[in-house]
Amino acid sequence: PELDVLYGFEVVITRSDQRIWILYGDEASQGQLQDNLWYWMRPAPRGIWSLQTIDVRQILSDLELDLPVAENFVRYDVVGPTLMINFRLMGGARNQPPGALAFEFGPVQSRSVLPDPDEMTREYLAQPEVFVMWRGDYNLLARNYDKALDYYTTALELNPSLDEAHYRIALIDLIRNEQQIALPATNEVPAASPGG
Question: What's the pLDDT tens digit per position in 5-18?
Fold first, then answer.
């Protein structure tokens, strides 16, 4: 397609650094432009406001790209699985006379802040270790070390090469050892000297 005028979004999948240009133009097309850069274009009228809806899961499927794995993310002191995807508004042109083009965007909003429970269930069934790690992280944050250790051990049974589970088990061991070292030291408080 002719990409002399670009108008839409750049979607960046943070873990893999894959970029997708979601573009609006005169025709529908899609493909790969270079390593880690794809485009997905849909027709949109020029010169008038229009409401466009994008479904990132469907776009990734259309481009035959995998949905990123959820990462544990702390928000309001609660750890939860989150798909780390950045959205950037974009507009650009080449081979255009100066001042001939303007890009205007209206409000951009999410249809729903709540995830689809059926889709989450499918994802967790496909990768149960992600859900088990999330439960472990929740208990680690709450200092329920025995429960957290049980979840991380289960995650390793499901996926023995899961580096995050190995790290968190070592972290729990470190926390417990520091507590054991710190406890005797608290019993050795020097007596206060008179008058001091």
Answer: 778 888 888 778 88
Residues facing 31 on adjacent strands: 39
Q: Could you identify the residue written with the tokens 């608290």?
A: 186
Q: What is the full DSSP assignment across 68-131? A: PPPEEEEETTEEEEE--EEEEEEEEESS--TT-----------S-SS--HHHHHHHHHH-HHHH
| Tokens 């051990």, residue located | 153
pLDDT tens string 112-163: 556 677 877 787 788 889 889 988 988 998 889 999 999 999 999 999 988 8
Phi and psi of 49, rounded to 5°?
A: -75, 140
Which pair of structure tokens corresponds to residue 36? 């880690």
Q: Round to whole Å and give the CA distance between 52 and 13.
A: 21
107-113: long-range contacts (C-beta < 8 A, 24 or more apart)?
111/53
Radius of gyration of the chain (CA): 25
* Tokens matching residue 7: 């108008």
Residue type, 1: P
> What phi, psi does 7 have (nearest 5°)?
-145, 120
pTM of the predicted model, to two decimals?
A: 0.53
